[in-house]
Amino acid sequence: MIYWIGIAAVATMAAAGVLEAGTKRFDLAGMVFVALAAALGGGTLRDLLLARPVFWVADQTYLIAALLAAMATFFVARALVLPLGLFLIPDALGLALFTITGTKAAMVWGAPWLVASLMGVITGVVGGILRDVLCNEEPLVFRGQLYATAAWGGALLYLAAPHLGFGPETSALLAGSAILLVRLAAIRFDLGLPRFRAKAG
Amino acid sequence: MIYWIGIAAVATMAAAGVLEAGTKRFDLAGMVFVALAAALGGGTLRDLLLARPVFWVADQTYLIAALLAAMATFFVARALVLPLGLFLIPDALGLALFTITGTKAAMVWGAPWLVASLMGVITGVVGGILRDVLCNEEPLVFRGQLYATAAWGGALLYLAAPHLGFGPETSALLAGSAILLVRLAAIRFDLGLPRFRAKAG
Amino acid sequence: MIYWIGIAAVATMAAAGVLEAGTKRFDLAGMVFVALAAALGGGTLRDLLLARPVFWVADQTYLIAALLAAMATFFVARALVLPLGLFLIPDALGLALFTITGTKAAMVWGAPWLVASLMGVITGVVGGILRDVLCNEEPLVFRGQLYATAAWGGALLYLAAPHLGFGPETSALLAGSAILLVRLAAIRFDLGLPRFRAKAG
User: Fold this and answer.
1) Residue B51 to residue C56, Cβ atoms within 8 A
2) Most exposed residue of B132, B197, C13, C180, measured as fewest CB within 10 angstroms of its CB?
3) In this complex, which of A25, A30, A85 lies closest to C198 when CB atoms are compared?
4) Is the dihedral of CA C120, C126, C132, C138 positive or negative?
5) C201: how many CB neighbours lie within 10 A of its CB?
6) CA distance B89 to B122
7) pLDDT tens figures, C61-103
């Protein structure tokens, strides 16, 4: 079950990568590269930090899912005129899926709870940061709407829910939905944390 | 002893991260992310390269120290008007502390001396590079004042001092102070290595 | 044999790093840092992903080769007036050498063929991406001429050739030459894949 959610998250983020790279006139190879970085970057950093085997190296399925999703999105996006901000929706879905699978993987590994929640955030946001840096855009995580905050809150909710009597699958569903809803609301209503006031020197 | 120096270095670099991010109008989550990257980035890369367990994954203390230092700096910096270049001082201190702990860790691991000195430099400079890249500033290490050079010189001094009859703690103190003093002098008097002359094509 | 090709690739990429950094007025320390990132970055990421010991950490020879090549290039480039695009030639040679050694290392490790070919591409292109990002240039891999595509094609050719009856050394020579020739032709005749058409929102 968690395996197929992982595959879905990888495919979703690869599609978001192609949709953003598509606004930049990259060639096909550049776009595939961006899609792979977006789809595999967060989980790769998590696995390196936990000294686990990197998830897509031993199992080609992830790589094939990312490549197929990138290709399919490429051809659909060439045929249709798509709105510029469309990649925000698969990005929000991928954020929710990756944060939950990342937190769970760190918990299973035995990480302390604060580290486990941060691993969830890393798994969720790093792929998108790589994508934005490669596309030379300011990372979404820094654009002032709830992003890492939504992921961190969801990861903590996922860790807390079993202590409130929820089963493992209900906890995952609850926390994942919370991340997705908070993130979509943040995009729609421009919600954010207070910003630091810049000081005069 | 080396453990508490490591904690102090992490807290120092987290504070420097907040002070630089504070000039950029990041929100709280973005600032915490920059502070964690600055505080943990160099040691993380060192541990990955040496195939050691990543220092902050098994022991939450580092993470908590970085978060507390970031929060404290955030609230102090909101209350006071601070000079823009203030982060240079904790940055110089963090550079000295991290270079020494990084070199020592690589030596204990059994790395050859040239590799050990480079690990010290990586531990010292990579956190600051990540911070500057995330803040979209040209990295300090490339701004032409002695920075990586000060760290490398200090790391080599730290490796050489025991052969000149100094004890391990005196060597660390000597080399760390040398890095801090050279770096502060480089900022104050704008010292640098000769630059490459750009050629006409 | 593959060992000395690896050393040659490291030296070649370090020289390309110095030649590009030389157009940016970096100081000596910055240039050495860029050269090391260019020379060691791709192989380092490959080794981390495969959970192998990082190639230059246990064996100082690579580090010394990169430093010597960087220094020699620095002094030659100061004495002569070199054309601006000169680094493209050692870069193409390094791409070919690294792609073959990276694919071979992943195959020996037992990676599935699609992963092995991608490891070759990563070994080939990541050092150059790091160099370009540190020099604040758009990465060559995204500039629209065949680059990652040439590396990927060569890696697949290298994996396929033994099944067509070629010996291991002939396969390596064949695939490496193909990468070098395609890349040089792409530079000379401005060959590229079709680009994504940007859409109006």
Assistant:
1) no
2) B197
3) A25
4) positive
5) 10
6) 19
7) 999 999 999 988 888 877 776 666 777 888 898 899 999 999 9
- How far apart are the C-alpha atoms of A34 and A43, rounded to whole Å? 15
d(CA B32, CA B17): 8
Of B15, B28, B135, nearest in space to B72 by CA: B15
Contacts made by residues B110-118, CB under 8 angstroms, sequence distance 24+: B111/B50, B111/C57, B111/C58, B112/C60, B113/B159, B114/C60, B114/C63, B114/C64, B115/C56, B115/C57, B115/C60, B115/C63, B116/B155, B116/B159, B117/B152, B117/B155, B117/B156, B117/B159, B118/B152, B118/B155, B118/C36, B118/C63
| Residue C195 pLDDT level (bands cut at 50, 70, 90) | low
A113's tokens: 């709870």
Q: How crowded is residue A170: how many other Cβ atoms within 10 Å of its Cβ?
A: 12
When CB atoms are compared, the residue of C57, C64, C84 closest to B50 is: C57
Look at residue A21 in the predicted model and tell me its pLDDT: 80
pLDDT > 70: percent of chain C = 91
Mean pLDDT to the nearest integer, B187-200 = 66
Residue with tokens 């967060």: A42
What confidence score (pLDDT) does residue C100 get? 94
Backbone φ and ψ of B144, nearest 5°: 95, -10
Residue A148 has its nearest CB partner, among B33, B83, B84, at B33
β-sheet bridge partners, residue A27: C195
Quote the CA–CA distance of A116 and A104 in Å, as a whole number: 8
pLDDT digits (tens, 9 = 90+) for A134-181: 777 777 777 667 888 899 999 999 999 999 999 888 999 999 999 999
As a whole number of angstroms, the distance between CA C17 and CA C69 comes to: 10
The Cα C118–Cα A56 span in angstroms is 11
Amino acid at B167: G
The yes-or-no verdict on residue B85 having pLDDT over 50 is yes
* Length reported for chain C: 201
Q: With CA atoms as reference, report the closest residue to B95 among B38, B138, B34, B35.
A: B38
Which tokens go with C200?
A: 């109006």
From chain A, the residues in CB contact with B83 under 8 A are 201
CB atoms inside a 10 Å sphere around CB B170: 12
Contact B86, B12 (CB under 8 A): no
Cβ neighbours of B77 in A, within 8 Å: 196, 199
Q: What is residue A136's DSSP assignment?
A: T
- Tens of pLDDT, residue by residue over B8-25, are 889 988 988 888 877 776
* Residues with Cβ within 8 Å of residue C123, at least 6 apart in sequence: C42, C43, C45, C46, C98, C99, C101, C102, C103, C105
Residue in chain A nearest C115 by alpha carbon: A57
C-alpha to C-alpha distance for B65 and B43, rounded to whole angstroms: 15
CA A168 to chain CA centroid, Å, is 21
A195 → chain B, closest CA residue: B27
**Structure confidence at residue A142 (pLDDT):** 72
Q: Please answer yes or no on whether A82 and C199 come within 8 Å at the CB atom.
A: yes
Distance between CA atoms of C67 and C81, rounded to whole angstroms?
22
Q: How far is A112 from chain C (nearest CA, A)?
A: 23
Chains in contact with C via at least 3 Cβ–Cβ pairs below 8 Å? A, B
Query: What average pLDDT does range B177-188 have in this prediction?
Result: 92
